[in-house]
Queue: 2 jobs
Job 1
Amino acid sequence: MPNLNLDALLNPAAIAVVGASPSNSNGVGSRALHQLRRFAGRPIFMVHPRANPDDDPMSVVSVDALPESIDLLIVAVPAAHVVDVIRAGATKGIPAALIFTSGFAEGGAEGAAAQQELREISAQTGMLINGPNTIGFLNLHERLLATFYLPADCELPTPGPVAFVSQSGALATYIDDLARDRGINAGWLVTTGNESVVRLTDVLEYLVERPEVRVLAGTSEGLTDVDAFVRVAAKAAELGKPFVFVKAGSSPAGMTAVMSHTASISGADEVFDAVCQQYGVLRAASLEEALDWVAMLQPGRSAGSGRVALLSGSGGAGVLMADAADAAGLEVLPTPEQDRKVIDELIPSFGSSANPIDMTAQAIASGVESYQRILDAIFASDAFDSVVIASGLRGAQSIDVAHAIAASYASTTKTLAVGWYSLNAESREVLVRAGIPTYPDMSRAVNAVAALRRFEDERSSVTPEPATRVDKARRVRALAILSEADVSTALTEEQSKSLLSLYEIPVVQERGVASVDDAVAMAEQMASYPVVVKVLSAELPHKSDVGGVKVGLADADAVRRAGEEILTAVAQHRPDAVIDGLLVQQMAPPGVELVFGAHRDPVFGPTVTVGLGGVLVEVIAEVALRKAPLTIEQARAAITGLSGGRLVSHARGVDRNQVDELAGVLVRVGDLMVEVDQISEIDINPVIVSAAGPLVADALIVRGTE
Amino acid sequence: MPNLNLDALLNPAAIAVVGASPSNSNGVGSRALHQLRRFAGRPIFMVHPRANPDDDPMSVVSVDALPESIDLLIVAVPAAHVVDVIRAGATKGIPAALIFTSGFAEGGAEGAAAQQELREISAQTGMLINGPNTIGFLNLHERLLATFYLPADCELPTPGPVAFVSQSGALATYIDDLARDRGINAGWLVTTGNESVVRLTDVLEYLVERPEVRVLAGTSEGLTDVDAFVRVAAKAAELGKPFVFVKAGSSPAGMTAVMSHTASISGADEVFDAVCQQYGVLRAASLEEALDWVAMLQPGRSAGSGRVALLSGSGGAGVLMADAADAAGLEVLPTPEQDRKVIDELIPSFGSSANPIDMTAQAIASGVESYQRILDAIFASDAFDSVVIASGLRGAQSIDVAHAIAASYASTTKTLAVGWYSLNAESREVLVRAGIPTYPDMSRAVNAVAALRRFEDERSSVTPEPATRVDKARRVRALAILSEADVSTALTEEQSKSLLSLYEIPVVQERGVASVDDAVAMAEQMASYPVVVKVLSAELPHKSDVGGVKVGLADADAVRRAGEEILTAVAQHRPDAVIDGLLVQQMAPPGVELVFGAHRDPVFGPTVTVGLGGVLVEVIAEVALRKAPLTIEQARAAITGLSGGRLVSHARGVDRNQVDELAGVLVRVGDLMVEVDQISEIDINPVIVSAAGPLVADALIVRGTE
């Protein structure tokens, strides 16, 4: 699916506002009209029945009376009139509309019906509709303030590289306020409200490729088009643009709230998390954390290989920062000798030039020149990729220190974060103007550098979205196997394994036979001793208990003996049971047991899982989940990430070759789910991994109910 | 060990400052003198060689010249003179000293030697010494500002129920500043600096029992007396006083920094974490988080059973709060019908009275009366124990809303937290005066309520520190077994199992015998078929490979046959090997495998661990660690907490009776470590848990090197 071209909506050449009143300058329409006319530098019309061209030459009495050049119709009329206005605009051929009015799907059945009408008008005419129940957008690079929430006399905010997208208008104003406090320059802020037509993901797809956007950040309560989200994430990774996301409704309580609030379903949170991992999206737990990260990503500098220098005037602060750095995966390496010499000359003997670097309060008090020289020396060191400063200064001295930090930062291309809890407005202004990310807590400053590092690290391993590889011939054969299954939704073990074999997933060979002679012949044919022989009977679920299982049979004689003993024992224990024959089964060599699975999420579509197998491991219940289809690299990352990497690093785990083979299995299980959407669930337990490679011992495939 | 009585140090009747200069009012001594004289209302002397009683009637020229009534000597002279001043004070019988001067153990070998001299003076005279290198303390209930970091003209801070204790002076000023911003009223702020004599834990032990202290919070880089820390934590839990702690140096990088910075060792962070879990200490990851929690704990209200109402003017904010509440273990239950009716009359139809409650921006704009009535209705509901409000208001309206919230809060005893990112100074003042905890982020407000809830929850399950139960007779027998072991530090399997048996830990019976006949006799004597027979030979580490192991032997005949076959097979495979005989071993019934361990931490002393066993489980490597000795309740909590509770809840896990038996084993492994401190390490792998109870199959005990 191609992106929607949102130019008419988000960068319109001419705009008309319906619902701005000549007599009430405080309505949302009037406020938006005011802001647009202050800055936009393009025709902004007003539509109002009492419009008087003598008072306002850019006003008309109806949508019909507008000139042909209008790209965007902004609608702020009462809910009862919205559909008529939109219809008039669509009829006139206006390509886009923005509807501020609320009281649609979020307000009950009647509103939902009206919203459906809007959707239909769009479907018939191609009109792009943002809203209803949206607070509009800012496109600051084009000086467009298509919103009503800013103060009437606000200055035009400085446009920057960050694009924020939010479904909720309230959260958007929260983000905008907070971002401004933090020195984050948003070039874009787009809200999507009820998403009757244009969705959050449409906006993200439009923005991710725009050259002026270098950092993407969004929040949403329900993602309705996860494929589009995957496209955005993959594109952002490809272009090297960090993408920060806060998904509201990640918890059961949150999801319930979303459903009652927006009437939209959200898919399983674990699947969303998997998508973020697969495509390098930085998922933040709160808006505060998201803004902490965006502030760090905005400068576009690098955290290199994560070697961080920690500078403060107190040993205790240094230790706390070192703890935070360690926990977040940054490296706190010792300052090299030659750099220590430079620093030691600038600090008292009871300070420390090791890392963390304790310049002491005394060195700070002794003058700002030495502060800057110390910081210059740290930036100049080859041993560090970034610097985090903790400061608790107040008063007159702090502005001098802020200037020193700003000057040092201007002379380097390395990354800097400042944790300065007592930062006053004047000093903050100095740091913000210099483009330096500041934090009210030193641990948060460290964590933000770690987020940048994580982005850079993951970016290198994010693979593009896999091309959808539907193999039609294979699909036909799969459907044939499915159709053999009787009315029950679960396939038999044999059918399940046939399907897996079709997708080149190695399964234990096995075959039901009618007699002991046939069992011997089948075992010879398999040519893969040792084998297992089991009694085949629907009436004997616990075969071992009745002497119905013999394992480790090394040759034809052993198979014959086992078959005879089984039939005798079963006849003795359960003379009543109907015996269907014998099952001859290849015996998997001993090895590490894993479990694979697949599931179809109602919103996010097919997913696959891989986890450790075995009895106690079920208790531990650790699995990695990924969205299908997936690339071999994504599959490998899922497997090597199990148990904190120990599945691969541990002597009793699996080796690199086995990881590659297992990754192939995971990819192909995903392909099966993608190609055959009649399957709702796959449970493969266990897959036994030995030197001979992975082998599926048991598998169950479930068809969806149609 | 009894607490140190720190009255003379922290609540002295009369004080003398040495090192305040009549001519330099900016020195640290002079600044402290100034603050003490402003507020303390008790005699504060100055000691200075050029003191002139005409200028200052409370000044003397030497320590000798001081009156007998002095309790506390505050020392701010240069490092070279400190020891002499302290000696003079001690000689005079002054019971306590506070040393601001730095340049001791933190500044090299010479300073360390001087610090050792201070310690010796204290040991000889009983003088309590706080410091050197400390910034002193505030005891605001007694109007004592024994410090130099506050501005000369500061007002006397309002004393409150919170006591802060910090080793680092810099972190203490950070805490003090931040606490004041957050409306936290510290009654105490004590720093301990280099801890030559008085340690952080001494101060905590002194403060925890004081009636005016209701919340305890501390931070330290290295805990040198973990037993005292355990006593404080257990006492705090007993008295219902929350205890929040930030341990700097929790990571390898942080620990390295601590060592270079304070030259003190810190114990393994996992052990500290275990102590916090055992004794209900709220361990925060950063100072910001600690202060978030303290602000919530200060009012002394309850979070009840954790049912939280979430109120905002936006659906999106409600969802984000619900996510945070869910993740933090709070309950977001629906508003009951009768309460919804009250709320519905006060909000527009597109709002929501469900929980999260979206009152809408419109309801907020419509007037502050309805705001207060909505909040009153929520507080009045039986369905909620606490309320979290998210607000993004700015401007004139916010102060009215703050007053409405304050009025509603005054009329209830329930808990409230306000997340208000755009809170202005005036509105903040209203909320702070009302005693309401405020947060710059709504998720942080929710998390703080969860911390209160966690404290209340854990308080109920914290057991007092176990009485040390040294059984002297048992200890003598244990030492006898240890002494049998030869020079190697590892005991044999048999010796290890004997020791465990002595502590009533059930071990697999086994005995080495010389011949097949003896093996049969031994098996008959054990009377616990099936048994295992193994070849006994130090030269055959891989017994199975040479046919040296036979399992599942059901009777005497089987044992005889097995013994003969083993000897034949071994003679065939390894004719060269010296055979010591045969091992007859009880065969544990199949069951869940666990691993137990014990270790002696250089700082924290004996610890025990319990985790899941089995091959793949080693890969997963999850263990619970606890400090020994431990109570049966603490042991039970450690076991039931494994794998997120699934070891107990899962069908393939263990049942309640088995948990009790396993908890007993854990307690007794701890007792063994406590009683016999010659043991450095115990490794019990596996313990097999079947219907017959736990049974140790293999064990290894290691003696410490002396």
Note: Chain B has 25 helices and 28 strands.
Job 2
Amino acid sequence: MLHVLLFFYFLVSSSHAAVQDFCVADLKAPQGPAGYSCKTPAKVTVDDFVYSGLGVAGNTSNFIKASINTAFADKFPGLNGLGLSMARVDLAPGGAIPMHSHPGASETLLVAKGSVIAAFVSSDNTVYSKTLKEGDIMVFPQGLLHFEVNTGRTPALIWVSFSSSNPGLQILSYALFRSSLPSELIEKTTFLDDDEVKRLKALLGGSG
Amino acid sequence: MLHVLLFFYFLVSSSHAAVQDFCVADLKAPQGPAGYSCKTPAKVTVDDFVYSGLGVAGNTSNFIKASINTAFADKFPGLNGLGLSMARVDLAPGGAIPMHSHPGASETLLVAKGSVIAAFVSSDNTVYSKTLKEGDIMVFPQGLLHFEVNTGRTPALIWVSFSSSNPGLQILSYALFRSSLPSELIEKTTFLDDDEVKRLKALLGGSG
Amino acid sequence: MLHVLLFFYFLVSSSHAAVQDFCVADLKAPQGPAGYSCKTPAKVTVDDFVYSGLGVAGNTSNFIKASINTAFADKFPGLNGLGLSMARVDLAPGGAIPMHSHPGASETLLVAKGSVIAAFVSSDNTVYSKTLKEGDIMVFPQGLLHFEVNTGRTPALIWVSFSSSNPGLQILSYALFRSSLPSELIEKTTFLDDDEVKRLKALLGGSG
Amino acid sequence: MLHVLLFFYFLVSSSHAAVQDFCVADLKAPQGPAGYSCKTPAKVTVDDFVYSGLGVAGNTSNFIKASINTAFADKFPGLNGLGLSMARVDLAPGGAIPMHSHPGASETLLVAKGSVIAAFVSSDNTVYSKTLKEGDIMVFPQGLLHFEVNTGRTPALIWVSFSSSNPGLQILSYALFRSSLPSELIEKTTFLDDDEVKRLKALLGGSG
Amino acid sequence: MLHVLLFFYFLVSSSHAAVQDFCVADLKAPQGPAGYSCKTPAKVTVDDFVYSGLGVAGNTSNFIKASINTAFADKFPGLNGLGLSMARVDLAPGGAIPMHSHPGASETLLVAKGSVIAAFVSSDNTVYSKTLKEGDIMVFPQGLLHFEVNTGRTPALIWVSFSSSNPGLQILSYALFRSSLPSELIEKTTFLDDDEVKRLKALLGGSG
Amino acid sequence: MLHVLLFFYFLVSSSHAAVQDFCVADLKAPQGPAGYSCKTPAKVTVDDFVYSGLGVAGNTSNFIKASINTAFADKFPGLNGLGLSMARVDLAPGGAIPMHSHPGASETLLVAKGSVIAAFVSSDNTVYSKTLKEGDIMVFPQGLLHFEVNTGRTPALIWVSFSSSNPGLQILSYALFRSSLPSELIEKTTFLDDDEVKRLKALLGGSG
């Protein structure tokens, strides 16, 4: 029995201090380019690795008849540094997730309920578009513009995964029309006309 | 109008050849450490980015009352090089995915239907275990042993995402008892006794 | 002297075969997620590491009074795998590089001649905009929308560097209006009105 | 001479502040996903880059007739962020390092003295096994189960290197039988029988 | 209008906290292997992404008739974590940047004015050398010795980009002769003779 | 029993094709920036993961009383893509490994026999030097100049590990004096005098 104890002593002592299988986000400590600082291992519990915030459908009683609910590292600290995150998308019939991109991640989209058109556009302006039914998965390569529209008669539920714990989310019409970009610069760099730019700024709340 | 054409000429000519937003797997060309070779862009279609093979429940009429169906880059070539893949897990009541690890990827697990116990064990032998209900997500850090068991009375459906397009899958009892590892070496390196090793080799089909 | 020769024999023989300081692109061999295949080292010359194609000003007699000329790995094979590439931007007075993003790279922009307004928009719709003069450098983080406009009275010359040998280039209005995206989907996902979408499709050559 | 001084002034001033050739671990500052925070460069000495803790044979008077002594970044701070670490394994005749894996690293194993059987098992349950003699090197790809057994009549000394400064170490029978995993779940997910699970829990100190 | 507000509420609330498109260096907080800690996003301004320090020619009235002025993350904090940095090189006629390497980055060199000979040496002692004229770009693969010499009759201006926000800069003759390396060790490991080592130590200010 | 077979069918069929736990180098197929192409898994044997070429002491009857023998991926194909390689260094009394750097890797050095002085120089010309005895480990950060000298009275044996399967090896005096660099350019960029450059070119076999 003494030998067993000695055995434990050696192996455990040598491996213990070096253990860092994960780096649960300490949301109050400094962040770096690779993510949040790590919570002290002694304070980590299973709840850091479980997130229940996507269990309920989002409210789609809005302009776009859609909702996005994210589970990125800022809400789900166990993801920090692991190169993964998720989101839940709910789309009422006719609902749409506006054209957007994720600056730092590729994405898989799984249609759990309903039927949607999903598409992305590549650098050479080719459109990759498909009507997806329940159980279908589509992948959007990193940084490219894409969107989803519920083309069915029932609500759609979509589960999204990202190749980063912090993928970013740039919504095209928000970047243009809900920001402080001056109308003149928008027009010059998108070829949109002045009336349309001003209409959308008024609609979406842009200044500038 | 001539100016417009000139404009197209310049921008398009300069960006066209350099486009490589993605690298759809050419399953017949050489693989490298970063993944499969890329299919010629001209032959890529939207179907390379869509996978429908996970839309149907797996057959759980088996020993473990469970099935795993993967969507890795070898089946879903659009994933190649994008750092993501997926799998579908079906668990009949009482079903279990055996203890396993993914040598090259972290994993998120989303319970779409039913209720499961999921757990992983860290390097210092701490168990992180939780009973998950519909809509819950759990994350398993890279390379650690983990499993899922359906503890409910109804079938469970789980969607799994990985931080690699080729995550690997090492099932513990298969590695030990369905391989050609000699019984003597298994016993010496796991402390299991000879009877048990031989029983499991017979059950699971090991040689050696 | 024999000793010297022996010395050479040992060190040179041991290091020679392992040398791979670079991986000059073989444009005809398979590509993978990490870039082009490597040219046989014996065929590599200094000319693979030198590119002269950006030495001449681009033609700005066009719609946007601008030109972009890229030096990505497809034209400058020595860059392959080294995480760098370049481009030259020429802007006549009033010229503009349209709103665009690089899906796979961050960018530095150096104003070599003239004066330009440059700006990018972040995920939370903040605009980072500045009038740059000769010698100023601005950095655009990966994947975010940005643009440059010559606000001076003289031609501007800009040198651009990317953190990838293959950064991609998605021009916003081309992705929307020079592609095959159906007008209805563009409108639904950008809130633009039908007249404007059709005007721009006609202008830029979109189908769909 | 003035020119020389001016020269020094320019080159040194421009390069000095940017120097960060290394990031010696500051074990008391926050950790992040990429490793420990860096010690202030001014406090770094050569001793941060040298480790003498593996110079003495480990005590093999134990249950497994073996010892592992690690030199990971927590003990050898100069390794931090450099993608390398080491360990020393001593095996008395008949000694064995139990079946284990490193979740975050590949490993090379060099037999410095003696003769050992080493093996790893791949995802498809293939066993790669070899009797190694003095001077032989074997490589274990990341995250796969492997072990070493001294099959000779003399003590064996093994030097191990890892592709991470923090590779982790999951010992299979510890994860199962020295943890708080409930016996029922172990049995369900490994197919081991109840008697054997309880015997090993008693032997190795498991709870649950 | 209420719907619009609700829409904003959902999308903005879900994406806001997770935004980390960039990690502007907080030069006073801890550094890690991946770079500086991030400045609080609320304090980031456009000036963090713009650097004007390279707009003026460096003083070349010195020993080497050359100056290097760097824009690494320590001076240009917006670069932190983005894998890019820059430098400006001024060379009077006959001026030279001494033989050096960047331990952590590849480099592109653009000749903006004048004419220079640039060269690097690979691991197998092959020299890749070229006389570059205005507008030419050369790339130096990571970690290899290289240099530039102004061979023209007019001052040369060179813009340099690196594949790291912190590339390092090891000047060969400084490492040898301006450091505390003992002469005996320099001689033994470079084959230089004692007189020459001592002459250069005196010239460049070495001790040891 | 049928159930067992079904079980095997499902799990094995789903995981089999996706398995790529390793990428053993196929030395005859194209290389890419991430390494060699992978050998067909069916042809991989344990011998691809074992290398015996470092078991014998190198010949130190030469100019530098030293030998280096490498185990990089070109000789030890199992290392390909795993971020590790090794080398054996033998040093007769008074022997020295000349000043050199590894452009693409950090290094650990373990003194297995004898006593050596090892040192590296950082970007700010600080020397990190130490006399190492048996069992000591030293780490050299990536890309920096370093060397080892046997200062004892007995042969020294050193085991070296690298953080890349293809680390490169640039020997300083070879790069300068055994290459085709013109004497004039060497002198201008190193401050060495003409006599010394010519003496070393004659000694080491340089042309140019």
Note: The first helix of chain F runs from residue 2 to 16.
